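Continuing the batch. This is chain 6 of the set; chains 1 through 5 are on the previous pages. Same settings as before, nothing changed between runs. Recording input and output for traceability.
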Amino acid sequence: MGKWHYGVVLDAGSSGTRVHVYRWLDNAIALKESGKHDLQTLPEIKTKSSWVKKIHPGVSTFADRPEEIGPQHLAELLEFARDIVPEDAIKETPFFLLATAGMRLVDDIKQRLLLDHVCSYARENYDFALPDCNVHIQVIPGVTEGLYGWVATNYLLGSFNSPDSHDHGKNHHTYGFLDMGGASAQIAFAPNATESEKHANDLTLLRLRNIDGSTQEHRVFVTSWLEFGVREARRRYLDALKNAIGADNVKEFPDPCLPAGLRTTLDGKPLEGDTERYLLGTGRFDECMRGTYPLLDKNAACLDEPCLLHGVHVPAIDFDVNHFVGISEYWHTTHEVFEMGHTDKAYDFNTYQHRVEAFCSQDWESIELGISEHKWGKKLDHELAYEVCFKASWIINVLHDGIGVPRVGLEPTSSSSINGTKEVLAHGKGFLDPFQAVNKIDSTEVSWTLGKMVLYAASQVPVEVEEALPVGFGSNVAGVPSDFQYPSAELFPSPQVLHNETWQDTLFDGGSSRRIPGFILFVFIIVVASFFLCGRSRRLRLYQRVRNLFQRGHSSQGQRKRKASGAVKPSFFGTHSPSYERILEEGAQDIELGGSDSSRSSFEHLSDTDSTAFLPLKRTPSWGQSSPSRLKFDHDNSSSATIGLGITATPGLSSIDRNGLVVRTESRDHLTPLALGPTTNGRRSRAPSPSRPHSHKSPSTTPLILHD
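Output for chain 6:
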């Protein structure tokens, strides 16, 4: 391993897939290069803007054609990553593909099939480290995505490494995180001390490791709202719009969220020729705001107070100490159009809403002219102009009526005058406004994929004590909770299950902690297997040798005691004069086959039904091949001795005639030996089966006996 470690993460979103390549120093080198004050810091993750590549569409579009995702989608991204990572580091570079909300909407069977194709393609064509596809290639829940985003934001702002420089009061130094994509929206923040204690069971424990081996622990609330991303919200809005108008013969649907005079298809696409039904923009932004408000579902039942959107529980947010950073659509919608180049200014509700209203109230011809003249920047094209008014109204409603962010510019707040990314880095105190939309911090894009890589890099820091708690996250309980999520399959406590470790690796790998007990288990399995395969005659000889050795080591008095006890050698090893008892099925007749000491030579009360159970069977060498239904295991007679599988032994019988019915019906290998026990007149009594008709019972009936 060289100086640098690398990691590759594919963010498989709803609209496209973006590959990120990261690197960090080997921990031994990082320790040497760090000063004493830098030892209790997390590994320093580096990336470049040229190490990011995004392609369209999203992986979910391959759900019905999974065999195409490799050559038509993954190949371009993985080739890009392979060109960046040095050749000698590729085999040690972990590869992750983590899908988000777009794939969460795909049914489970198609999800699994698609991810299996991703795994097989990556393994067959590339040498990146992919120890377990179930861990490295998966659809992550929204809460995991939100937690990774929270880690990335606080990592870039420096609140993990320099908490004193980000003191927001009330012993609070971290920032809240807001993310909105096309299909879902997430929130993650550390509540103040009062709320953390009140809602401790709702928090997630996050554990990180500094380069000196010390740990950091944070307790974060995180939740996600599926279908609250801008694309899914727009779909729900249009469904409500069509349902409100209702009539099937209506051709034109007025839409206040489109610029005046703009006509689009019902799904917001440009019109091409005549169409039966279309949207007509009216450019009424105030009506658009009122139309999108019901989508927040604020009236949903709240089973666990307090709640924000859609009846989802969220601890109360203290905006004096909880300062939020928003990415993705929070940035694109508020800055790429309406900030008009002023990207280092904090979000100001009053200024922002005036700019939105001014843009959306124009007719479509004026907007088209402004686009051609780059009046709002080069990023605003026709497609974005179709959507931006709806997106702006949705963002405003979510932030202020949904989450409750104070309306800076309209409502009094105690926020600082420090605004924007540049001031954060210059003053070292962070964002002190209730909300700030960002795209990059210190020239690094804020992406949840960075949070994933911070966790992975921290987990690779070696520890000197085995009792050190692992890196990852789970329920807010002490130690390692049962649902703890490790950053990689290599870190799981049972890698032979999750990492597909073979038994050869476990037994013979010199670095395995399970080598000695595994070797003992291996030898035991070989001995047992050899014992069963050696055959009855060899087992008998082995038994005799062991018995002889055992007898030589005991006194003659001990031998007399064994003879007096009447112990019988188990038939499993073979014996000269074993005795067996055959127990019939319930409902069959008790039949005694006469032996040398019995005068009974005929069957009593044998019906036609009973006789069918005694058709001759082919003898087989293995007792396990006979049908178990031909033996009745007696567990109810507690006064008699039982051996082996629980078949009750018949005492007092030592010689059995092998002539007769039993020889024709059952292999002797299928029967279990008898042990001597209490007797009654030389025979053990057994209660008749309750299912046997009374008319068939005979006081002289005895169990069917076979002598060998």
